[in-house]
Known about the structure:
Elements: E1 27-30, E2 34-40, E3 46-52, E4 58-63, E5 66-68, E6 71-77, E7 84-90, E8 93-94, E9 99-100, E10 114-116, E11 148-150, E12 173-176, H1 178-182, H2 196-199, H3 202-211, E13 215-218, E14 222-224, H4 228-231, E15 243-249, H5 261-275, E16 279-284, H6 301-309, H7 335-350, E17 356-359, H8 377-384, E18 392-395, E19 415-417, H9 419-429, H10 436-442, H11 446-449, E20 459-461, H12 471-474, H13 510-528, E21 533-537, H14 569-584, E22 607-610, H15 619-622, E23 629-634, E24 639-642, E25 648-649, E26 654-659, E27 665-668, E28 677-682, E29 694-695, E30 700-703, E31 707-713
Parallel strand pairs: 12-13, 12-21, 13-16, 16-17, 17-18, 18-19, 19-20, 20-21
Antiparallel strand pairs: 1-2, 2-6, 3-4, 3-7, 5-6, 7-11, 8-9, 10-11, 14-15, 22-23, 23-26, 24-25, 26-31, 27-30, 28-29, 28-31
Helix pairs in contact: 9-10, 13-14
Amino acid sequence: MTxxxxxxxGRTPGSRAAWPGTxxxxxxxxxxxxxxxxxxxxxxxxxxxVLFDERGAELATxxxxxxxxxxxxxxxxxxxxxxxxxxxxxxxxAPHEGLRHNAAKLLLDPYARAIAGRFRHGxxxxxxxxxxxxxxxxxxxxAPAMPRCVVVDQSFPWGDDRRPNTPWSDTxxxxxxxxxxxxxxPDIPDTLRGTYAGLAHxxxxxxxxxxxxxxxxxxxxxxxxxxxxxxxxDLVNYWGYDSIGYFAPxxxxxxxxxxxxxxxxxxxxxxxxxxxxxxxxxxVVYNHTGEGNHMGPTLSFRGIDNAAxxxxxxxxxxxxxxxxxxxxxLNVRNPHTLQLIMDSLRYWVIEMHVDGFRFDLASxxxxxxxxxxxxxxxxxxIHQDPVLSxxxxxxxxxxxxAGGYQVGNFPVRWAEWNGAFRDxxxxxxxxxxxxxxxxxxxxxxxxxxxxxxxxxSASVNFVTAHDGFTLTDLVSYDQKHNLANxxxxxxxxxxxxxxxxxxxxDTDDPAIIELRARQRRNLIATVLLSEGxxxxxxxxxxxxxxxxNNNAYCQDNELSWxxxxxxxxxxxxxxxxxxxxxxxxxxxxxxxxxSGQAVHGSGRKDIAWFxxxxxxxGDQEWFDEGQxxxxxxxxxxxxxxxxxxxxxxxxGTLMVLLHAGKDQVGWIIPSGWGELWSVYAxxxxxxxxxxxxxxxxxxxxxxxxxxxxxxxxx
Length: 714
């Protein structure tokens, strides 16, 4: 069905065409005298640039009459930073052909560097007549309900800003939400809480450096869209996984304004974090946008060139190919969409100085055809790019489509959120699995990564992330408690596997409280004492709880914000101590996998596994699902890594005893690895103090039920 444009969407009488300008770069580019505007659309028949004042009133409409290689462009003199604008794209509205142009809809520039204002939900945002199907075009002007794009001055006093360039093997990631991390922090001024400037505040940075992490991974900061379904329930898209502007930092996290000020504030935050030695990794969502499925609003991409930006159903292009669970998937098969992603990534590295990216549902980006293809154009281009090939690249290696679970299958130069690590470590400490898979996870998951030529750091090791229970809630709840989300507790994953230590939720029982605290220490210590790249969920180190909500994506309130008034100081001290061990001992930061063979010159293997009896693990124990104890010795006599000058690296030799059984065991210190061992950490002890406990080979050390003990060879 083809529907003509409504007459109300015609050009404003007296509109004046822009000067020709140039087709590159895309977006709005100020040169000191005026601004060049360029926008891609293959299917458009005409494009208008609309300028607005700060009150939202329309100033002028400028038809972009020049078109070069599918890019519409024009130059407007005397237009500069702070100018607000949008586009109207003329063309056919024919959903069954994949065309959804509607010039009644003001559209955001996909390349906008800043976006001011918020969406006002209602019928005007939709390209079709709300209340019917999507086949009848709407003539309602959406401009009053739309935010505006903003022309930006990209200059910034970076000074001597330098990227930390932390090696992957030394990296410790801390996942946080820009607003949630600082919103309740008592030492940060009220006006800065919940903002980029708040994260740059010395009090925020002091905590990060005290923990000892080397990188912050920011949950999405691209400008986002709150769906009508959330707004109707007085909720918002707090997590931000519905991007609508891949170049624009989200304005709601700006303390200084949204007329371009958010760009400078973001840069200042990066500069401050770099000065403290902290890298900045962005969680990016290039797999879908906030426009949803065929019944969603027309905000940008859909109205500019629907078939180019989105993967459509081959049999009926009215509908969208969706492997993200959000209603749409970006069409990375189209070279212009791929260019958008690459230009966005390069922009954040070159102009905003970020150090890497974590790709949400990354398998969706690898679907060049239908199946996940790790040799797709997306990977080829990134690997050949002189900018992006040098930053950190982390994949969430799954999507919701068939064959989308791809843990271990991404190419070299990519690290992955290791879901197998999370599941194995959780199952071990809840007492529901044996030790064979645990040994793989403790040593960098060689079964997943070694055969592909990758290093242990390809495994991003974690037990909690934003999506799911916090660490405190993981050991306190069997059932999710998501009623506040307004979905009848049907959202979020189910986890009914006896983590609550005998009591669900809050309790006054000191024994249960201590057991939960011990399990928290067990889980986080296992992450930090494993080969690979550890990742901590922000707030886990101080006991953050969401009271059983394991899908707080829409909770922009105290349920999600970190509570700094009631932090768990003993837990914080414990985490900082284990992080300090990791950062000081190269044996925990190996760049190569263990071989199980003797180390040159010492006669000892580079790694050894043993049982409480002191003997090595045998085949029977490896395959015994009832085995609950595993000892590990990491030999630091001579690590097969070299420093930048080519010298061999030596580290300490570390023994880790992991015991998931309920009752204590007597563990014999094995012979042949050293004459004296000192206890560095014991998760059965609440307070962290320098240990005076020393043990000789053949002596028995008591390991409490459900606890981990780490010892260093003296």
